[in-house]
Specification:
The protein is 83% helix and 0% strand. The protein is mainly α and 173 residues long. The chain starts with a helix and ends with a helix.
Length: 173
């Protein structure tokens, strides 16, 4: 039972090619459903790990990798499907790639890995909601999409800065 959260994180990674396939064959409804399933399993693995104290060192690494890979792939796919919003997706790809790289550096330097923080959870939830809405509602006005993506980028930047600041404080203690 203790490994259920890790299996859910692994499952999210396995959902990535399914999302890519659905999006590139033009079935945005199914692409959105895959993202919704990914979001639900993301919530479930975190909830179960905390609720039943099934937190593992593997989970502390696997969960953020699943998050970052999912977010990067979604942004790359949407970059091609919705090229008019390229700057938002480029920013999100850069930010998530940078956070993935920084996380790998911390693991390599054997800095203790902490669980996800509230601002990262909010940023991830917002990302999923916005991407699902963009995928599911084909005729959203451009101004609405711009506003949602700008809000997502601002929250992603804020969570990245807070993560770096708090990790720096923890590493300096």
């Amino acid at each position: 039972m203790r490994h259920i959260p890790n299996m859910l994180s692994s499952f999210r990674i396995l959902l990535i090619p399914l999302f890519v396939f659905a999006a590139f064959v033009g079935n945005m409804f199914w692409a959105a459903m895959v993202l919704l399933l990914s979001a639900i399993t993301d919530f479930a693995d975190g909830f179960l790990a905390r609720r039943f104290n099934w937190i593992t060192n593997l989970g502390k690494i696997l969960d953020p990798i699943a998050d970052k890979l999912t977010q990067i792939v979604v942004c790359v796919v949407f970059f091609y499907i919705f090229p008019q919003f390229w700057m938002f997706f480029s920013f999100l790809i850069f930010k998530e790639g940078l956070m993935l790289l920084l996380g790998m550096i911390l693991v390599r330097r054997q800095v203790p890995v902490t669980s996800a923080r509230w601002f990262g959870k909010i940023s991830t939830a917002l990302f999923f909601v916005v991407m699902i809405l963009i995928a599911m509602i084909p005729n959203l006005q451009t101004v609405v999409i711009h506003t949602m993506l700008l809000t997502t980028c601002i929250m992603a930047l804020l969570s990245g800065v807070l993560y770096i600041v708090q990790t720096g404080k923890a590493g300096g203690e």
